[in-house]
Amino acid sequence: MQNTTGRLTHTLQPQVKKREFWAWAMYDFANSGYTTVVLTSVFGAYFVGVVAEGAAWGTLAWTTTLSFSYLLIMLSMPALGAWVDRHGRKRFLLFTSTIGCVVGTLFLAGAGQGTLLWAMVFLVLSNYCYCVGEAVVASFLPTIAKPEALGRVSGWGWGFGYFGGMLTLGLSLAIVVMGEDNGWVASQYVPWVMVLTATVFSVAAIPAFLWLKEPAAATDVVASQHWFAHIQHAYKESRKHFPDLYRLLCCCACYQAGISVVITLSSVYATQVMGFNMGQTMMLIFTVNIAAAVGALTFGSVQDAIGHKIALTLTLLGWLVMVIVASATTSMTGFWIAAALAGVCIGSSQSAGRAMVGALTPPGRQGEFYALWSFAVQLAAVVGPLSYGVVAWVSQGNQRLALLCTGLFFIVALMWLRKVDFVRGVRQATHAGE
User: Fold this and answer.
1) Which residues pair with 311 in a beta bridge?
2) What's 198's domain CATH number?
3) Rounded CA separation 24/140 (Å)
4) 8 A C-beta contact, residue 377 and residue 257
5) pLDDT at 168 over 80
């Protein structure tokens, strides 16, 4: 325990107390249950099979709904990020977005057969608010961790978050098993799973609102009255003054498109292609979360040791291997192996990307540039699942082909990553803050 405390102290900024770090990490713990249960394991399959009544357009309706929520994030998050930087309101936006996600998830409990519009509206609301909170809490990272420890601290946060996802998923699995033992169908136990997910999120997020300190406002941030003008200004500035950050954001957009397919469609693929039932699917996602926690917790130190760029390259190559195995295998064992590999890659790649953005971000502008990172991630979340749905629809339901095409996103991401000069990018960000 003493060694762990010492390592933690040496990785945090001098003014940051250990309690504040744990409060920050606890928010990752809190919100992971939403993605794990609502987006990845339970509600996706429920939406396609029950809400959409198993129709051929069900998968496309699911991906289109999520893509619309991500589009809203793309259009609003850069301006929101600049606003919270300028006015010092990160905690306020984090709190309101958390309330919105929790309320939206509670209303998802009312979704069932014949309630397609209801399910779509509250899926958009809950996922939009989740994405806002994710971007805001990520922007705290450079103010918490020392520059040389961004990978480790980011990895600790992601890894701790996966344990939160596993807790919510494990409790949800207990509800599903108990319900099925009593003869319940999905429309009877899924609402209780949604209530549980919202409850865990709201309770686990409390430490962040108690102990996470508001960073100082940045008075030099340009405020724009029109979201499109703000997006244009932010991206033009990144391309002109921070080209390596711009290239990294393009890389993130590409590989996050592939990751978003895995997150939002794994349960649909498992049930409709591999023949998994709800309980088996949840156990599969539980395994993915364990692997993801291991990847995030261990890879952060590896990332700081071997370099951010090399670390991210390795994870992208791992994603390519996973896509090939998952799309080719016809056995449940092979799919379980692919799922475990996906878990390791999710934890390591998401942690690596968040840390690299922090290292290339000018001091005092974390909210604005992490909003750009969020913009790239949400663009990916629009393109990735939607392209999967279109390929599956055009190919008359060939989801193996749709999954295989997902590998193209990781190939393009590697091409962008090759163009990133990390040392130069850090130097440019440092000089911009002087």
Assistant:
1) none
2) 1.20.1250.20
3) 8
4) no
5) yes
